Amino acid sequence: MKQHTMTSISKFLLLLLCSYLCLVAHAADHRTHKVLSVGSLKSAATCSEPKATPPSTSGGITVPLHHRHGPCSPVPSNKMPASLEERLQRDQLRAAYIKRKFSGAKGGDVEQSDAATVPTTLGTSLSTLEYVITVGIGSPAVTQTMSMDTGSDVSWVQCKPCSQCHSEVDSLFDPSASSTYSPFSCSSAACVQLSQSQQGNGCSSSQCQYIVSYVDGSSTTGTYSSDTLTLGSNAIKGFQFGCSQSESGGFSDQTDGLMGLGGDAQSLVSQTAGTFGKAFSYCLPPTPGSSGFLTLGAASRSGFVKTPMLRSTQIPTYYGVLLEAIRVGGQQLNIPTSVFSAGSVMDSGTVITRLPPTAYSALSSAFKAGMKKYPPAQPSGILDTCFDFSGQSSVSIPSVALVFSGGAVVNLDFNGIMLELDNWCLAFAANSDDSSLGFIGNVQQRTFEVLYDVGGGAVGFRAGAC
């Protein structure tokens, strides 16, 4: 009887040990590989139930965020959007423009680190902005669907009367119908500040005029104004924005305007700092068929891994970070830290993350080594590490993690590692040289709540937020 009991206990302990080892192996495999069924990789034709899980914020505001070309978007898809190849070509042109601007910039103007330099001029291409939010402007509030951009400061919407405007999903904002609308005078502090930011455009009938020009050749101009901005159930009085009455260039996406989330004085973040603190966060969904969110007032929350935020003293719009290492399949690549010393801009408007060529070459080689069971495929534009998944019911790819200064490790989602074009490709590209400024693009940011704690000088990442 005693021997039988001991045998049973031994079997039980052995079972527990096996279960533990299986769990450990599974956890290790999760760190080193991402496994998904091929069917789950396809974008849904219908909007899925929102999975977004913004934490409760004391005194904050959270609004839904959607991919503008997806089934969740409030912008109708009356015509086919540009293909991913075309969008990546525009993304490349934008990066080339930024690189030209950066080539003439001098180092040493970054407040928190001498190791990274943000260029004096970045510019933005509207054609790469992919995420939209819905707000209300005026009293009574009129619904406006606006592109979100961390690389812009001046927000604007199309207004009546408009001499040259593109078609949009909502009605043009009519200033005369709002009881709280007020144009700024040319002598106002807001107008002087706008001119100092080189976005003033003189006066018209004693009213302050703004102009914003974009890298893709488009521009918008009109009256710089204030009115009530409604985000969810929250009203923000005296919000400063451009009332666009004329535009030129390639506005064709049916959005009503742009919401600037940059770091300069005109941005939504700066304007609401007194109420919500100078911090915001967003979560970009994994696919166009799901939803994310944008939150103002996010600085006091926990659960983020953080890295110091780098800022330019000359151009305060942009938010920089310092990448220090890359891990593939759980193994850190042999890349000298000095390779990343030019720094990177965190940007919601750039699609693809751009790395120093030394770093990209190491990443590509390590990724290919972990993908030997899948046939290689022809490059697609700027993406040159591609694979053929046809005939596969599920795929297993090496994990990729970005390691930032301060030790923040960001283990990317599957949808932040690969993009589907003709085949599936590694969603990174190389800069022309190691001294060029890098970018952390919106593909790599997917599913993370990305925190921009401007007041606290930090960028944070919270995994699995949407």
TrEMBL record:
Pfam families with a match to the protein in the record: TAXi_C, TAXi_N
GO molecular function: aspartic-type endopeptidase activity
Keyword Disulfide bond: yes
One GO term (biological process): proteolysis
Superkingdom of this protein's organism: Eukaryota
Active site residues according to the UniProt entry: 149, 347
Alphabetical UniProt keywords: Aspartyl protease, Disulfide bond, Hydrolase, Protease, Signal
Signal sequence segment: 1-27
Ranges of residues in domain Peptidase A1: 131-462
Protein family: Belongs to the peptidase A1 family.
Protein name: Peptidase A1 domain-containing protein
Annotated organism of origin: Sorghum bicolor (Sorghum)
